[in-house]
Structure formats: C-alpha cells, structure tokens
Design goal:
single chain; mainly alpha; 4 helices; elongated
Amino acid sequence: MRRLLAEITSAELTEYMAYERLEPFGEARADLRAGIVASTVANHGMSPPRRPMRPLDFMPLVREPDAPIRPADPDQHAALLAKTLFGDNVKGKTR
C-alpha cells in the first residue's frame, strides 16, 4: 500500500477505482471470461438441452446475483487494485 500511495496521487487512485467499476480488470474479469467459455462449451455439449449452464456455475467463489451484498472493504479493494497495478511486487517484495 505504501508503494501505491507513494507512486500515485489520491486523485489517480480514485480515477482507477472509477475506471475499474466501468471496465473491470484483474482476476475477477478473467474468472468471468473463463466462466463464459466453460458455460458455452457445456451448453454446446448438452443433448437434450436442460437448464442452460451460466458463467456463474463455473465461478464458485462469486455470489449469486440475488444474494445480499456486503459493504465493500476499502482497504481490501485498494490492496487488490495495488496488486493489479503492480503485480506481486507490493509491500516491499522484490522479484
């Protein structure tokens, strides 16, 4: 977190957070893409068709759309954003 805050301003961090809400990136988006591919393959192979598989069926760590939403933890969100921007080289780690 120190590196993130040392290298970008609060305004830039706010912009990144707003952009990520409009155009998600990182592991959550990658998981969705993989879920879309997996559900497409599964649905293509169904004979006779049953209930179509959804991308969420292949994403076990994601909540269902109608599940209650817990308030976001700003520190956790900032830490995930830092990891997305700087990779594993955060919190003083060196490669």
